[in-house]
Amino acid sequence: MSDNNEFEPKIIAYVCNWCTYLGADLAGTNRLEYPTNVRIIRLPCTGRIDFNLIVKAFEMGADTVLVSGCHPGDCHYTSGNYHARRRWMLFRGLLDTMGIDMERIHFTWISAAEGAKFQKVITEITEKTKQLGPYEAYRKVCKVS
Amino acid sequence: MSEVISQQTLSQLVDQWISQGKRVAGPTRVKPDVLLYEFLTAADQLLLNGFIRPANTIKELIFPRTEKLYGYRLEGKQIELYDVEPPATEQIVVGARPCDAAAFPTLDYVFNWDYKDPFYRRLRDLTTIVTLACRDHDEHCFCTSVKLAPDDEGGSDAMLFDLGDGNYEVRCLTDKGKALFAGATQSSDKVGKAGPGPEPSIDLDKVKQFLDTNFESPQWQSLSLRCVGCGACAYTCPTCHCFDIVDEGNAAGGARVRNWDACQFSMFTMHASGHNPRSDKSQRQRQRIMHKFQIYPDKFGEILCTGCGNCTRNCPVSLGVKPVLEAIQEIATTETIETK
Amino acid sequence: MLNQLHETCRKLLEDGTVQVVIGYGQSSPDTPAYPIFVTRPEDVQQLVWNNQCFGNLTTYLTRKEVRAMGKPAIVVKGCDEKTLVVLEKESQIDRSQIVVIGMACSAVGNPPLAKCQACEVHMPRFADATIGQVENPASETDGRYADLEAFLQKTPADRMAYWMNELDRCVKCYACRQVCPLCYCETCIVDKNRPQRIDTSPTLKGNYAWHITRAFHLAARCVGCDECTRACPAGIDLRLLNLSVAKAAETDFGFRAGMDPEVEPVVGSYSEQDKEGFIR
Amino acid sequence: MTNIYKPDLMEVLQVKQHTPDVKSVRIKFQDEARAREFDFHVGQFGIFSAFGYGESTFNICSSSNWKDYIEFCFRKTGMVTEALWRIEEGDTIGFRGPYGNSYPMKEWEGKNLIFIGGGIAMPPIRCAIWYALENREKYGNITIVYGARTVDDLVFQDELDEWATRERVTVIRTVDPGGETPDWTGKVGFVPTVVEESNIPMDNTAALVIGPPIMIKYTLPILAKAGIADEDIYTSLENRMKCGVGKCGRCNVGPVYVCKEGPVFNMEQLKTLPNDM
Questions:
Q1: DSSP state of A43
Q2: For chain A, which domains are there?
Q3: ipTM above 0.90, yes or no
C-alpha cells in the first residue's frame, strides 16, 4: 500500500483549557512531534464536556474521540473533573450496551507540564485507530437513509 | 361468481413481486409482541390473520416519516440546489386494513388543494394497496361510527376476503389492482363477507354540533387532563399529516427535509416571539379533535379519521379519539337534557 | 382492598385534605387502566386497583394543569414511589403537600412485566397510607440486570446491529419522554436548536442521538418504572438502555435511584475516590 | 411535477441594520427569467431560507411596484434569523412565494388611510405605505402612527423622515415611557393612547393595524369609537408556518389557514374566528 492510500484517522480531542490544552501547547513549544490526525477542541473544563459532544464527533465522522483534562485535584474549578469522571463512568455503560466501540473513546488526565504525555497519548491512539480502521459502523448509522 | 386465490398462490405472488424488485409491505411480527406494517423480504413474513391491526399504518409508504425535499451544496458563496432522485420503485401493500387505505382519498384533498404536493403524489401513484376486509374488531375500533365499514373500498386497489378455507376472494377495484392479480385467480361461487364491524357508538352530528359551538368550553380541560402530550396518536394515525421542515447538513451541503410533526407538541405552534397560541395541552387536544371533525370536514367535506382506533391502542394512557368523542357525546347529551 | 382505597380517598376529599385524587380508572376489565383525576367524593367509585394499573402516575405531579387543581393525593405502587424520592431530591415536589396512597402490588400485567420479576418493593415504603398486603411476594432476587446481562453476551457488533434494527423503527413520537415522570424539563434538549445538538429527523442518526441522550439524561435518576418501554408504539426495548446506566451506577457507586432518600444522588456529587481504571 | 418546496436562489444586494437586532435585506432573483415573471401584491409573504439552518416566514416589505428586487426585514430571535443576520452583500439565500392574500389596496382607493404599527410590525406596513405613496392620487390623507419600546427600536427611521415630507402625510412617532432619549422629538406613550390623543380625522378611513396583540387589543376600540367600521380595519397575522401552502397544519386559527386565507384579515372576519391566537 502506498503512503497516499494509508488510512488517516480523524481524531477529535476535547481538552480542557487549563491543563491538557496547555500540555498540547507545551508539546508544541518543545517541538515534540505528534500525528496531525488530531483535531483539538478546547473547552473550559472537562466538566463542560457534554456527552452529546462525543456523539456529535462520531456523527461528523470522527474515528476516535479523546477527552482530556486536569489530573484529579488540579481542576481549575476545583471539582469539574471529578464530576466529569462520574458521568463518564455511567456513560461508558450506556455506550457499551449500544454496541459502540469502546476502544474508540479515550479519557486521559494531562497536565500543563505533560507535553510529553500529550505527545505519547496522541501517538498511541492514532496508531490504535489506524489498526482499528475507519469507524464504519457509526458511519452506517449516520448515513441518512 | 367471484375470483379467488389460495393462500399458497398469494404467497407465491408476493414472492414474485419481491423478486421483481418491487417493495412489498404488509403486517409482520418484528418481535414476539410487536406487529407492524414493514417491508417484507419474503412472503412467509406476511401475517394476514390472528390480530386486529398493526400498531402503525401504511401512511408511511406514501407520506414517509422523513423525506428529503431537495439537496443543497455550498461552496464559498455559491449555492446549488438539486432535486433528490425521485423514488421509482413500485410499492405494494398486502393485507392492509380498510381503515388504513381509506385515509388516502381523504388525504388527497389536502395534498392537492391549490398547491399540489409532488412527493405525496409520486408515491401515491407508485403504490398499490391490497386490503383485507376485517372479520374481527376490538373495543377501540369505530370505523362504522365515521361512516366507514370493515370492507370499505376507499383507497383500496383490490380487497381480499378471507373465505376461511385457506382461500381468499379477490375483488379488484381499480386497474392497478386488476393488473396485480391478472391470471392469478380462479373463478368460484364462494363469496367472501366481512365481519359485522363494531356497533356504531358515536353520533357525529352531535359531535359536530358540540364542536361548532364549544370552542371555549371548560370541558377541553377535563377531556385532555390525562394526555401526556406525546405524538404516539398522531404518528400511528392513518390520516394525521402535519409536518415540519428542517435542514440537515453542514457547511458543505445537506438537504432540506420534511419530518412528521404533531399538534400535541407544544413547540408545534411556538412563535419566534415566544408567544404560543396553543400553550396549553387542552388547546392542543382541542386542535386535534377540531381538525379531524370540524375543520377538515368543513374545508374538504371529509372527516379526517377512519376509526381505526390506533390512537387509543397506542396511547400510553388509553386516550385517543374515541374516548374523547364519547365523552363529548355524553357532555352534549347531558347539556341538552339540562337545557330542556 | 378496593373498598379501603375508595374509603381512604373519599375521606381525603370530604375533609378537604386534598382537592384531587390521581388514581386509576378502567373502561372494561382486562384492559389497561388509565389515569383519572377524582375531585368529588362521590366519584371515588371510579377508582380501580388491579394488575392492569401499569402507569406511573407521579408523572402528573409536575404538570401545570394538575398542579392547578390543588393539593393531590396520588395512588402509587412500590416501584412508582421510588420516583417520588428522586423528584423530592431534585426539589420538584414538596412531599408534605402530597398525600401518597401506596398500594401493595405483587405484579402488574399478565404475564407480569419484566420489572415485576425482580421487584423488591411490593410494599410501598414511604406512603402516607398503605393499602393491602402482598401474599407471597416473590422473594427479592438479584435478577435486576438479568436481561441486560443476557444482552451483553452478544458481541459489540451484534449489539450495534440490534440497536440499528430497533432504533430504525423509532418515529420520534417522544412517548418515552412524555410518560417519564423524570423528564420534566420545561424545554427538552431536542427542542432547542441553538445549537441543534440532536437531529430532529427520525433517521437512524437522529434516533441514536436521541436515545443516547434520553437514557443518559436519566443516568442514576431512572428508577426503572419502564413506562418508556411500555409507551413505545414501535416496541423498542428502551429498558435495556436504562438498565445499563443503572447497573453502572450500582456497580461503581453502590447507588440505586429512588431507593434511599438519605443518599446523595450520584450525579451532582462526587468522591475523590471514584475509581478510574479507564482513565490514563 | 413542480417541487413546491424548492426555493428560488436570490442574490443579496444590500443589508441594512436598523436597530441592534433588526436588519432588512434586499434580494433579487439569480434567474432572470424568474425575475421577469415574478409578481406579488403588497401584504403577501415569502418563506426565506438560510441553507443549513432552515426557513423563516416574513412579509415582503418592499412595494410591489419595485421590479428589480424585493426586500424583507427580520429581528434576530432564532436559529434561522441568526444565520440570516450573518449574510452579506453577494451572498445567496432562498426565497419561495409569494404566499397568502394581500392588502385590499384597490378597495382602499378614495379613502383616507391610517397605518398603525408597533415595533417590528413596521415592515409589513411599509410596503403598503410605499404603494400608496406611489399611487398618491388614488388615496386621501395618510396618517402613520408608529411606536416602539425605545428610540433605538424604531425601524426604517430614514423612511419615516421622508414620508413626513410628503404631501397630505402625517407621521407620528412614539416610544414607550422610559424609552425616550434627551433629543427625542416624537411622542412618549403607548400607541393606543397616542392614537386617541392625536385627534386624527377618521372619516372615510381604512386602517391597517399591525403589532403585538396587546397593542391591537387597545387600539381597536379607539378606531371603533372614531367610527371606522370593522370591515375597514385590517391586520396581518403572523402565525408559525412551515410549508406556507396549506399543508403542514400549524398556522390555522380555528378553521382558517393563515397561510392561504390570510395573513391579511379585517376585524369583521377576525371576530368570526375563535380565540386560537
A1: E
A2: 7-142 (3.40.50)
A3: yes
